[in-house]
Amino acid sequence: MKSDVIADWAARPGRHIVNLSGGKDSTALAIFLHDKIPQIEYVFCDTHKELPETYDYLDRLEAFLQRPIIRLNAQRGFDHWLNMYGGMLPSAQVRWCTRKLKIEPFEAFVGDDTVWSYIGIRADEGRSGYISTKPNVHPVYPFKELGMTIADIERILETSGLGLPAYYSWRQRSGCFFCFFQRTGEWVGLKEHHPDLFEEAKKYETERGGEHFYWRQRESLAELEQPERIAQIKREHALRLEQERKKRPNRPLIELLGAVLDAEDDERGCDICHL
Ligand code: SF4
């Protein structure tokens, strides 16, 4: 029985924590557990570079939960660590940002306490999320263990009144506005929805000693924002969306959009930031 399994989790001695990313799955998990595990704590590791929609979504979640969301990294956001790393932008290969801004603050926050860390990976996903190397932090996967899929997550968000994060129509991964895991179409979405943040992201890109430091390996943001390049990206995006529609005529647009964005870049997102 589902309720027995959850009661079993709630009875475990130690701290119970949902690590929020500002994305739909961790938000749905917070909502799903809030009346089942009353002692649960909610934590958000703030890079100070999230989208405004994410901060707004977290505020609305906090109001719904009637409980505080503990914000970590109050003093040291992305720019502090970028400075410490000599201006080297993080990338999928050298991902210092996740360690410094997500993992270490969380591990410092829990210390040596016994922790049940609830992770919003769904039953219809193949990933495992962030598994701490600390022996006192134990991962729990409620959606996976209870067989809950995307339809359940959408229902939880709908019923709560929160719905999907507002950025969802153009971007499907939570996290920093300049995240290098963004797909091509999501960068175009950033330029269109937040031109100021696109400009800010552009300012981080440099060239030194013949080497370039770009968010995207293949091209700089200055190249990507050229009108002909944007027109090409949009053409390809529309074509893929049309193909997806024909392949799966009964699926909601949001799902088709996810498949189209995945097809643009095959890099998997971050298992910590994008939940
Ligand atoms: S969202 Fe992207 S850039 Fe930000 S901390 Fe996570 S992996 Fe790094």
Automatic annotation (TrEMBL):
This is Phosphoadenosine phosphosulfate reductase. SUPFAM superfamilies: Adenine nucleotide alpha hydrolases-like (SSF52402). GO terms for molecular function: catalytic activity. Coiled coil: none annotated. Residues 17-127 form the Phosphoadenosine phosphosulphate reductase domain. Transmembrane segments: none annotated. It comes from Chloroflexus islandicus. InterPro entries: PAPS_reduct_dom, Rossmann-like_a/b/a_fold, Sulfate_adenylyltrnsfr_sub2.
